[in-house]
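Q: Got a minute? One more chain.
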Amino acid sequence: MKKAISGITFIAMLCSIGSSTRAQNVPNGEKTFKAKCAACHGPDAAGKPMMKSASIKGKTADDIQKVISTSPKHAALKNLTAGQVKEVAAYLATLK
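A: Always. Here it is, folded:
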């Protein structure tokens, strides 16, 4: 019984660490998004049809990285680190 309680406590602790890490990434992701993405994708990431720019709300870090690495339109973003891409994805996940 003690092992089960210890295991549950450990898992709860890991979950809280993960959520606080994501929360810390959101402000950095917002800053990067506003500096690098908002001009084309809009301040709310809903896209800009006149620019033929898609909505990127809710996109994952993998989705973003794939587009950055394969799209000539995103060549200027190839210098973003994997961490920055994850932060942008964390920010996008907060948008409604």
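A: The longest helix spans residues 2-36.
Q: Perfect, thanks.
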